[in-house]
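Sanity check

After download, print the first record. It should look like this:
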Amino acid sequence: MFPFSYTRVSDTDEALDAGRRGGRYIAGGTTLVDLMRETVERPESLVDISGLPLREVRATEGGGLRIGALVRMAEAAAHPKVRTLYPVISESLELSASAQLRNMATIGGNIMQRTRCTYFRDVTADCNKREPGSGCAALEGHNRTHAILGTSDACVATHPSDVAVAFAALEATVHLLGPDGERRVPFADFLLRPGNTPHREQALRKGELVTAVEVPALPRPLKSGYLKVRDRQSYEFALTSAAVALHIRGGVIREAKVASGGVGTVPWKLPAVERHLVGERPSAALWTAAAEKAADGARPLKHNRFKTELLKRTVERQLRVVGGTK
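Expected C-alpha cells:
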C-alpha cells in the first residue's frame, strides 16, 4: 500500500472542498481499501465522510423511497419502509456479501464499487479499466464470469452490485452534491457502459458526492423480489440475477419493471421483457415468452455462453415467483 493522507470531515462543505482538491471519498471502505492494498488504486488523499448526515431512510410524497448514501447495507435491508414498499431492495441487499460487510458498507459505496474482474485486480494483466489503452486480457483469457451485454472491444467486465440491479429495475434517481450545487441523475445514466472509455465508470463530476438514491412512487399493489444465481450459496457474486416488480390489477399486468445483474457491464434493464408483460394476464406461458427476450443483443464469449440460457431461465423463474401462475 502506498502512502496517503487522511482527513475526517464533519460537514458537506468541508467534504466538497477536500473533494475539489482531489481527495477520494471513503465511508465503509470495504471496496477502496481492498483496491489500495492490491495497489490497483493509489489515492494520495482519503476524505472520510462517514460522519456526514446522510443516513436517513424515508418515504417520499406519493409512496416513493429515499435512502441516504451513508445508510449501511444492513440498515437499509432491515428498515421497515424498505421491506414494506420495495422487498426487491431488501432481498438484493441480504443476498450481498457477508453480514460483517453489510454492517460496514454503505448504499453509496455499494453502487460505486468497482468490478471484481480478476484481470482488473491483477496489476500485471492488461486492463483498459485500470490502465487505459493497455488492452483487455479477458477477451482472450478466461472469461466465464464476464459480461454478455453492454460489452465493447475495450472491456467485458461486469458490475458487481446486487442492489444496483434493483435500483435499475425500479428506475431510481441518484442525488449528487458538488461544487456546482445539487443535481439528480437517472440511475440508467449514472453507471456508464465501457465503450471506448471503460475507466470512466460513473457520471460524476470532479468533487461530486453521492448523497442519496431515490426510488420513485410506483402504482400499488406492487409485488417485487430479487433472485441471485451463483456458483455457491453465499459470499459469491452473481452469474445472473433478476430484479422484478409487477403491478397487477384486475388480473392484468399494468406495469412491469425488470433488470438483471451478473450479465452486463452495468445493471441491465430489460425493456423488451417489460413490454411483453404489460397488458397481459399472468400465466406460465407468458413468463416463458417474456423471458426469451431477456438475452436480446447478447454477445457471449468463449467461456460464458451458458449465461445466455441461464439469464432467460433466471428471469422466467423470478417472474413466476413474483407474478404467480394460473
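If your output differs, re-run the checksum step. Summary of this record's structure: The chain has a mean pLDDT of 96.
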